[in-house]
Protein 1
Amino acid sequence: MTDEIPQPIPQRVLPPLSPAEERQWAMLAHLGILVNLVSGFLGPLVPLIIYMLYKDRSRYVAYQALQGLVFQMIWWIGGGLLIGAAWTITGVLSAVLIGLLCIPFACLFSLVPVVALFYGIYAGIQCNQGEDFKYWLIGDWFRATLIG
C-alpha cells in the first residue's frame, strides 16, 4: 500500500480569440435582438450565452455581449411592458371617449422595439467592421465595470 498524493487534474486553457473571431461573436451578440422577431422575448439569451462562453477568452466580446444583453432587457422587454401599459390605459379610457386621444401616444410607444431592433443591427454591423461600439448611456458604464 502506497500513500500517493493525488495529482490535480490539468485544466484545459482555451486560447484567446483572434480579432476576426472577436468581431464575429460581438456582432452575433448584438444581432441576437433578431431572435425577438421570432420568439418575442428570447433574444437576450443570445448575448447571455455568448458572454458566458467567451468572457474568459475576450474582454471585447464580453463587453459587447453584456451591452447587447442589457440593451435588449431595457429596450425590448421594458419597451414591451411600456407598450402593454400604454395600450391598456388607452383601451380602458376609450370606454369614456378620452382614450381615443391616447391612441397616437400608444402608437408612438409601439415604435420603441422597432427602433431598438435597428439600433441592435447597427451595433452588430459596427462590431463586424472592427469598430469599438458602445450603446448610448450604458456603454461607458459597462466599460468602467469590465476594465476599471
Protein 2
Amino acid sequence: MRWLRRSGRAAAPVLVDDGSLAVLASSSDPAAGEGPALAALAAAGHPPGTPVLLRHLFALAGPPDAAGTPARDVPTGASPPAHRDETDTEARGRASEAALRALVERDGYEVRRLGPERLVATRQTVPTVLDVARERARMTGLEMRFPVTYLGWQALAPPPAGRAGDAPPRDDGR
C-alpha cells in the first residue's frame, strides 16, 4: 500500500466551469504556439504553478445542407415528412459527441455541449508550454478521426485578486 505524505500544503481547489471563472489566456492559432498565450496568463496575474481549467473548443461538422432533407430528395408526388424526431445533423452531432466523449473522458477530460454545434473538453492542469502543446496536438489530431473542427484552447481560472473587473470577457461561443 502506498502511504500518502502530507507536505503541509493545502490541496489545489477543484476548478469547475460554472461561469465563475475568467478566460485568462487562449490560443486559436497553431502557428503562434503556446508561449505567448501562457505569458499572457502570467501577465494577468495568475501565480505560476497554480492549476487552471484548460478548455478545448470544438465545432461539430455539419452536412452541406444543415436545414434537413432538400426538396429534390423527396420523391415526386410525396410530401416531406410532417415531423421528424431528429435531423441528420442532430444525429451526427450526437454521434460525434459520444465518440469524442468515449475517447477523451478516460484521460480525465470532461466533455459537454456548448450550444447546438459546439463541444468543449475540459481538464484541470498546471499549464506548461510542453503540456499545453501536447494537449493541442492531441485535440487537433481528433479532427482526423471524428467530424469535428478544433477551434483552440482557453485557460480559465478565478480572476486574480483585485482584478475581477479587469478579467477578459468569457468567450465560450454562446
Protein 3
Amino acid sequence: MEVKILTLEDDLEKVVSGINSAAWDIKNDISEYTVSALESYLQREDTIFLACYETTGVTHTLLGIASSRIEIKPYGEELWLYVDEVDVCRDHRQKGVGKFMMQHLIEIATNEGCKEIWLGAEIDNLPANALYRSLKPDQVTDVIGYTYEVDA
C-alpha cells in the first residue's frame, strides 16, 4: 500500500476517474467527483487529500481516499487537523486501508505542528468506530450533529 498526497500538479482527471469508477457502497456516501471541484478543494492551502493505492507492476488500484484540513483555533494559535472523510473502497475493507490512511494523517498533523486531531463518525458506523478506537484516541465523546441546508 502507498498513500499519495494529491496536489494540483497531479493528473486529476485520472484521479477523479478512479474515484468515480471505484466500488463504493452506501456507508461511504461518495458523491460524483469532478475535476473542477477537486481542483477547487486542492487550491486551498489548508487542505490535505490522500489517495491510497496498491501497485502491481504498472497497475495502480485505488483502495481509499481521505480528506482533511488544518485549522487554527480562534482563541489561540494552536493548529489542529479536522478529518472530514476516510473512505475505503468496498472490496478493500477490513484490510488495514483505513488505518493506513489515518496513520498518515496523524503523521502529517504531527509534522505540521498540530496539537490535536478531530473527527466524527456516526454511532451506527461500527467499522469506522472500531478503526478510530484502535488508534487509541485520548478522548471519545458523544456528539450530536446538526446539518443545515441553505439555499444558495
Protein 4
Amino acid sequence: MKKIVIALVLIGLVGYAVFEFVQDQKRGVTGIEIGNSAPEFELQLLNDENETIRLSDLKGKKVVVNFWASWCKPCREEMPEIQTFYENKSDDVEVLAVNMTASEVKAENAHKFVEGKGYTFPLLVDPKNQASSDYKVLGLPETFFINSDGTINDFIKGQMDLEMLESKVKKLK
C-alpha cells in the first residue's frame, strides 16, 4: 500500500512539473537568462518625480539597462563611457541607468553624484531595489542588453568600457 501511495505522489509531482513547464513556455519565460523575456519594471526618473519609464513601452527598440550606485567606483568610472555611447547611438537604441537607491547611504547621494556631470541618458531610481532584485543584481555595475522584442541578448557583470558597450549593442536584434 505504501508503495502505491508513494508512486501516486511521484506521478503527481512529475505531472505538476510538466504542467508548469508547459505553462512557462506558453506565457514566455521571464528571467535573467539569455533568450528569456526581460523582467518588466516601471521606475521614476531621478530628477523628475512625475515622470516614469516602463521597460515594455520601449518594445521595438534595443535597450541597454545599467544598474549602478553612487558609492560604486567602477560605476562612476563607466558613466562617462555610457554618456559618450548615448550621444552617438542610433535612434533604435535606448539606454537606461537604474540607481539601486535602497543601497545608497542616503537617497540624495544619487542626485549629488550626477549633479553637474551632464549625463543626458535616462537615470532612474529603484527605491526598493525591486528591479535590481528581479534582475538578480548582486554586484555593481551590471548591464543587460535587451533585444527589440524584449528578450535578453546578453549581460556584463562588472565595469564596461565604450568598446564593450558598442560591441554588445551591435549584436542586439
